[in-house]
C-alpha cells in the first residue's frame, strides 16, 4: 500500500507518518518544562495562543537518547487535543510503500505501524495519533 508520508529524522533513523495526521510543522523553539512529567514529554510551547504539549519522539522510543533541542515540531490534532512531536529534521513528503505491518501489541504500544521504503530509504512508519493519545489521555 502506498501513502503520502511526511518523512523526518530522529538521530540517524528515518521515520514517516501519514501527512493527513500533521496539522503543521514549526521550527523547534524553547519549551517550558512541566514538573514531574515523564522524560519523553519535553513541556509546553505557545503556538499562536494555544499551549501545546511537546513530545520527544526519540526519547519516547529510546529513553537513553539525548533530547531534541533543535529541528522541528510536528503539530498534530487528535480530537480536540493538540500536541507537538519534536524531531531532528523534517525531510520531505513522499509516497511510501509499506513492506510490513507492525504486529499488534508491539514493543512501542502500537506506535509503529510498520516498515516501508521510499526510493532507497527504509522508513519506520509511526502512528502519531496513537503517540498523542498515549501522552495526553
Q: Any key phrases for this structure?
A:
five-stranded mixed β-barrel; 137 residues; mainly beta; five-stranded mixed β-sheet; single chain
Structure description:
- The protein is mainly beta and 137 residues long.
- It has two helices and ten strands.
- Strands 1-2-10-9-8 form a five-stranded mixed beta barrel. The protein has a five-stranded mixed sheet with strand order 3-6-7-5-4.
- Strand 4 (41-47) and strand 5 (50-56) form a beta hairpin.
- The longest helix is centred in the C-terminal third of the chain and has 9 residues, at 128-136.
- 31% of the residues are buried.
The count of strands amounts to: 10
Low-confidence stretches: 102-107
Spatial strand arrangement across the major sheet: 1-2-10-9-8
Helical proportion? 10-25%
Instruction: Give the overall shape, derived from the CA principal axes.
Output: globular
Structural class: mainly beta
Portion in beta strands: over 45%
- Order of SSEs, N→C? EEEEEHEEEEEH
Cα-based radius of gyration, to the nearest Å = 14 Å
Oligomeric state as shown: single chain
Separation, N- and C-terminal Cα atoms: 30 Å
Q: What characterizes the major β-sheet? A: 5 strands, mixed, barrel
Tally of DSSP helical segments: 2
Overall pLDDT score: 87
Describe the protein's topology.
Blueprint: E1 2-10, E2 13-18, E3 24-27, E4 41-47, E5 50-56, H1 57-61, E6 72-78, E7 81-87, E8 89-101, E9 112-118, E10 121-126, H2 128-136
Parallel strand pairs: 2-10, 5-7
Antiparallel strand pairs: 1-2, 1-8, 3-6, 4-5, 6-7, 8-9, 9-10
Amino acid at each position: 500500500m502506498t501513502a503520502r508520508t511526511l518523512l523526518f529524522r530522529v538521530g540517524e533513523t528515518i521515520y514517516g507518518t501519514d501527512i493527513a495526521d500533521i496539522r503543521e510543522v514549526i521550527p523547534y523553539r524553547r519549551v517550558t518544562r512541566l514538573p514531574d512529567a515523564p522524560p519523553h514529554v519535553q513541556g509546553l510551547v505557545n503556538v499562536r495562543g494555544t499551549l501545546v504539549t511537546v513530545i520527544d519522539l526519540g526519547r519516547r522510543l529510546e529513553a537513553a537518547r539525548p533530547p531534541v533541542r533543535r529541528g522541528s515540531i510536528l503539530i498534530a490534532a487528535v480530537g480536540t487535543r493538540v500536541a507537538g512531536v519534536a524531531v531532528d529534521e523534517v525531510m520531505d513528503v513522499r509516497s511510501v510503500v509499506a513492506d510490513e505491518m507492525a504486529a499488534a501489541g508491539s514493543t512501542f504500544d502500537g506506535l509503529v505501524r510498520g516498515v516501508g521504503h521510499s526510493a532507497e530509504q527504509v522508513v519506520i512508519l509511526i502512528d502519531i495519533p496513537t503517540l498523542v493519545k498515549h501522552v495526553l489521555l
